[in-house]
Records
---
Amino acid sequence: MSRQMVRPGGRSARVQASVHAAVHELASEVGRAALTVPLVAQRAGVTPSTIYRRWGDLQELLSDVAVMRLRPDTAPGDHGSLASDLTAWAEQFLDEMAHPAGRAYIRDALLGDPDGSNAGQCSAYAADQITFILTRAAERGERTPDVETVVDRVVAPMMYRILFRPDGLDAAYARRLVAELLDPSDPSDPNGQNGPRDPSDPSGPTGP
Amino acid sequence: MSRQMVRPGGRSARVQASVHAAVHELASEVGRAALTVPLVAQRAGVTPSTIYRRWGDLQELLSDVAVMRLRPDTAPGDHGSLASDLTAWAEQFLDEMAHPAGRAYIRDALLGDPDGSNAGQCSAYAADQITFILTRAAERGERTPDVETVVDRVVAPMMYRILFRPDGLDAAYARRLVAELLDPSDPSDPNGQNGPRDPSDPSGPTGP
């Protein structure tokens, strides 16, 4: 994130805001594949060298823009219980990330990210949202898993499949991940080893 | 994989082999950042237009090369039980993928992959290895989870953390994922909800 670590306000913040806005506008007008640094600079009213100096190259600029777009803008909703809060969050996360725009942002965030800080920021956003949900559940007196376990059991499978194995992803998959996390002793599967992933089960991703 | 679907043997296969070899040689001589299509073409003894026609651009070529390098070259070892086979496989997978060369191949495979087929191939390699392990275990008479569950519970967390949350990844993490998959009723954690992820536990990834 070093390139984004700029003082709030002032010229630096105005340049960032106008360059990010230029990327959004141009991406919808001419498509992302047609974006160039000179084109973005012209729209933003800055010189190309300002962009190169601050972001390095177009890929790094797109990565920063993607991370900004992936930042959640609201706290997770309160549905009264850990299971329902986490289920609603996971469904929304999968819906946003598996959407073509979400996939494009995830790819951009990973690509122009030589030191991995933008990918780390994406993961931190998810972990922060989960921590919020777990803290609220603990305050209700509910027993909660720890945040890293939720990352491993709910976030990681969704992101892995979005990137590597996207067939069959749907809200039922997000719900099942949460259900298996919170109730590994599902009566239909006394040992908790087999998820309901019969190959004929239309709700389950089967992958290539 | 459409660009790779060429007839074995013949000029097409020779071109692929010499271009892939040129990428490897040049990457070690001048570094990946300095690779260009004309440079690769010159070393491979083909024209740049041959490369553009077949691979589209450098990024797609690097993606194809990465997938070839990520292909396992041996079947998973037989250590006598499902737990030991899967543990050994997961440790080796994490070691290879979290290594700087492995991370670079994963990134390359994802980047120059407009239709997602190379990422799907990477995932299929892992699923094939797991299927091999599970089939052998079932033949021994062992109870086995299904392959998609192993992908969700072992492969996905490792790949997610390699890409998004790499701090603290080590062999103990791979072993723990397998142990929690095969024995969710670990006596140290009767409800199977909390992995041994105390923040002070040096074996556990804590993320940013």
---
Amino acid sequence: MEKTLDFWFEYASPYSYPAAMRVEQLAEQAGVNVRWRVFLLGAVFQQYGWKTTPNELFPAKGNYMWHDMQRICASLNLPYQRPSTFPRNGMLAARISANYAESEWIGDFIRAVYTANFAHDQDIGNSELIANILDKLGQDSAQIIAEANSDEGKQKLKQQTQQALQQDVFGAPFMMVGNEPFWGNDRLEQAIYFAAHGKLPASVILA
Amino acid sequence: MEKTLDFWFEYASPYSYPAAMRVEQLAEQAGVNVRWRVFLLGAVFQQYGWKTTPNELFPAKGNYMWHDMQRICASLNLPYQRPSTFPRNGMLAARISANYAESEWIGDFIRAVYTANFAHDQDIGNSELIANILDKLGQDSAQIIAEANSDEGKQKLKQQTQQALQQDVFGAPFMMVGNEPFWGNDRLEQAIYFAAHGKLPASVILA
């Protein structure tokens, strides 16, 4: 049986950044295949009756998160700059990610969008920025953006978000290995270990 | 300078169980001193306008947490049984923990209370159960319970809970190393590493 990990992510989610940057490399080392599964976390928050992100609703938690992002990225040698606008509009990037999830360039695209937002403080809601990323990857940006913004392209992201809700994906990043759920960047290594070995690790060694 | 970690915990918090059971042993191996810091998480939830635990407010998250508790405890070889009543009333245990935080038996007391609730499905709100735990530890249970329930004893827990809020301790377990905050059982090893080395680990090895 092929070892597969579904990586559920949302572009506005800060903790999805360090996880998205690392998941393919860590999974490859463990012989695990990654499926990129974008969704809209706002659909989950709506179920809770939240009209904004929990980082605004719960200030102590939000402050902790931004501090944590900085130290996590530093410890991983990931470039990081706190976005001057938060959350940014990741709708176009999400539509593209849902419609081209099987394309060989999708991992590079996703990492480039996260890097623009969380390392370079750029507006990923700007379609020109998204087009530039696609062009640099040698893709036909005009066609891809038109397809992503078509009725069918929009529908694809909506369906995938519904699937996330049905699978109780309540946060991001969220890893599913078969029916086994793992929530958060903190659990990325563990989820990959589980995909590779079919069980949780017994010990954690930090170095 | 002595290396010290403040371990903030709440008796009703499931994830505090695996963390409380492990923190002293892991800290000792790393040459770090643990200060037991109990508080009432309800005071945080009141700030959010929540009248019950987030596990009831957000069912998908609650279901994940109980599943996660089971697999985490199994992987750590910790006995675990999902409490048939949740949350249980940990007020007396918390008052004792606040008032006797410096006593040499306090770690054993705290672990015994957590084990009663999360391994043996016992009612930790029952003062006889608490008295039995103290008696087994060779302590004068009648005197300790009377002091914990005195006006002064109650006040001590209230003050410590206020201190938690002032330090933005918004969940449990919560580790503070100086001003550096770490939230959750997932971050226990990292917090101890930080207390020992003054920096975060660069890599995580699971085995």
